[in-house]
């Protein structure tokens, strides 16, 4: 009886963890896509003319989006590697 409860609990926990990980991976991928789109749009909006040494709002947004994009790219690469290894295994 105890082994049945333990097995059921372990199975439910594994399924819940897998579902939550898939959901977080989807959210991270969507945020990455939104960040890349925003960076592309703000990069196109940056005007090369202006005073030397001044930073406009689009330039600041364009530069600071790297803080979001780089870790999300690493997370996306990890997700892809895990999925490929899951398929190969």
Structure summarized in a few sentences:
84% of the residues lie in helices and 0% in strands. The protein has 89 residues and is mostly helical.
Return the structural class: mainly alpha
What is the residue-mean pLDDT, rounded to a whole number? 77
The major pleated sheet works out as: none
Portion in beta strands: under 5%
Helix fraction by DSSP (H/I, runs of at least 4): over 70%
Strand segment count = 0
Low-confidence stretches: none
**Number of domains as seen in the coordinates:** 1
| Rg, alpha carbons | 21 Å
Label the overall shape: elongated
Order of helices and strands: HHH
How far apart, in Å, are the first and last alpha carbons? 32 Å
Count of separate DSSP helical elements:
3
Describe this structure in words.
- With 89 residues, the chain is mainly α.
- It has one domain (26-88).
- The chain is 84% helix and 0% strand.
- The chain is built from three helices and no strands.
- The chain has helices spanning 2-45, 57-64, 66-88.
- Helix 1 runs antiparallel to helix 2 and helix 1 crosses helix 3.
- The longest helix has 44 residues, at 2-45.
- It is elongated.
